[in-house]
Structure formats: structure tokens, C-alpha cells
């Protein structure tokens, strides 16, 4: 059994320093016996629900699409509809870190089973918007040990003193549970020849942000602190702060580091550097306009992100929403 260490002390950053696979479409067959009379009319009537069932199955298959990128034979990245998931897989079992979607779990489990004979599974769920959380994504019922930072877990009803509240309607509908393990500062894994650290960070996207460092693979995952597909979200309701992005990412901007974003393709530290430079430039421009006594609407109209929109303006957060968040961060200090 590989050792797991859960530590509530600080952990210094200096020490942590396509193949496309689609979920199979369920075969649907229906056998009917019917009288010879009015057969055409009966078939017409029943064809609508059959067609609806086929479309629903097709929709589920499309949603369950999983793309796999092999970093090394022991380190994989799965792209799911909810976000990227980094996996260590080998003789000791498998560890997943990220935001897996519930509809990807069966497919990912199948891929892992092809690469390791042991059933040992650990899953660390990164923080998400609670309205879109998919809980443990169904890994708990497969026997995995599923963990989440205590702040994020409390927001979905876990890590409480006493009996937990009922699952949300969303979780019931998805057929998922809450993670059953909470951590505060550090999770450390010695697994498959890798030293892997999950380390709580200064709030950026949220107060549950953590970086995950795969030391041997020289790979890092930051969750929503580096979204990869556009401007970042600062979730003020979850304790997010603008400066936290720069504090968390600033030490990993060397091109030698492999970087897995929350969504999108694997990149390197140079992309982090460009991302940090964008945040710094927009922050300084907004601050300059605040100093000139410009209001929020005036600052947004100045479009301080203009030169960055081609690269960062196509994700979940629009340029105006990002500027509004920067303005709020600077005026609520």
C-alpha cells in the first residue's frame, strides 16, 4: 500500500516546485408484436418516443466524450466536459486530480483498468462553481477514495460536524455523492514512481485553490487559477482575490514546466508567463483609471483588455466581466 500523508502545516512553493475516445453509444433495440391492421399507424405513433430515446443516448454519448493525452506512460491527461483531469497510473494504482465529469467516469475507469492491475483509486476534486459542481463524479461508488479541499467541500454540504445534509437535487440527478475526505493544506502521494503534492494556495479563483505538482513529470495543474481557455474568474463568493493568481502562478513561468490548464491543451510555463503579464497589465491600467477618478462603467468603456482579447477573450469569462472583477478587487482593498 502506498503511503499518503495529510499535513496541515504550510508547504513552500520552492519545494513543490490525442487520442480521442468517445463513450460508447448504448445499442438500443426494440422488438414489438402487433396485429396486421393499422401497422403503419402504430409504427408512426411509437417511432417518436423511440427516436427521442435514440437522440437522448446520442446526447449522452456526446457529453461523455473523453480525450486522452499521454504525457508519459504513467501520466495521462483526460479532457472531459467538466474540465481536465491529470492521472498518475501504474503498478500502485491510479490518482486523478482535476474536475472530472460524471459522464466520463466509466470511460476513464476503463482506460485506467487497461494500464494497472490494481483497483486502488484516489481522486482529488478541484474547486468549481457550486452550481456546476459534479461532486465526486461517481468515483466513490466505484470504491475510490475521493478528496476535496475543506473549504470547497463545505460549500457542497460536506466536512460538517454531525450528520451531513441531504444531497442536492443536482447530485441526485447526476447520481453522484460528495467527496468523503477533506484536506486543509497538503496532500502528498508517493505513487507509481512519482512524488505528487497537492498544496493549498493563497486565494485566487477561490479560497480552496491548490496547485498539484507531479515532480518526476515536471508537470503542474492549478485548476481554475489557470483556466487555459480565457480570462480568469475571480469568485468573490468563494473568497477569490486578484493578487492570488499572481502569487500562485508567478513561480512556475519557466518554459521547462509542463502546465495542464483547467480546460484546453497541455502547455508550458511560457503560457503562464503570458497569462500573468496580461493580468498585471490589465490591473495596472484599471488602477491608473481609478486614480484618474474614472467610474466602473467608464473604465469598462476604455476596454483595457483590447490587445489581449484575441488570445484570452474566447473563454467562459468575457473581457468586460474580467475588467469588472479587477475593478472590484482594486476598490475593495
Word description of this protein:
This protein has 333 residues and is α+β, with helices and mostly antiparallel strands. Among the domains are: 4-23 and 64-221, Ribonuclease Z/Hydroxyacylglutathione hydrolase-like (Metallo-beta-lactamase, Chain A); 27-63. 30% of the residues lie in helices and 21% in strands. It contains nine helices and 15 strands. The chain has helices at residues 39-63, 105-113, 150-155, 169-174, 242-249, 269-291, 296-302, 309-312, 319-331; strands spanning 4-7, 19-21, 66-72, 75-79, 84-90, 93-98, 121-125, 145-149, 181-183, 186-191, 194-200, 210-214, 219-221, 258-260, 267-268. An eight-stranded mixed sheet has the order 2-3-4-5-6-7-8-9. It has a seven-stranded mixed sheet with strand order 1-10-11-12-13-14-15. Helix 6 (269-291) packs across helix 9 (319-331). The radius of gyration is 23 Å and the shape is globular. Mean pLDDT is 86; it is low at 1-63.
Under the CATH scheme, the architecture of the domain at 4-23 and 64-221 is 4-Layer Sandwich
Radius of gyration from the CA trace?
A: 23 Å
CATH top level label of the domain at 4-23 and 64-221: Alpha Beta
What is the number of E strands?
A: 15
Helix tally?
A: 9
List the helices and strands and how they pair.
Elements: E1 4-7, E2 19-21, H1 39-63, E3 66-72, E4 75-79, E5 84-90, E6 93-98, H2 105-113, E7 121-125, E8 145-149, H3 150-155, H4 169-174, E9 181-183, E10 186-191, E11 194-200, E12 210-214, E13 219-221, H5 242-249, E14 258-260, E15 267-268, H6 269-291, H7 296-302, H8 309-312, H9 319-331
Parallel strand pairs: 6-7, 7-8, 8-9, 13-14
Antiparallel strand pairs: 1-10, 2-3, 3-4, 4-5, 5-6, 10-11, 11-12, 12-13, 14-15
Helix pairs in contact: 6-9
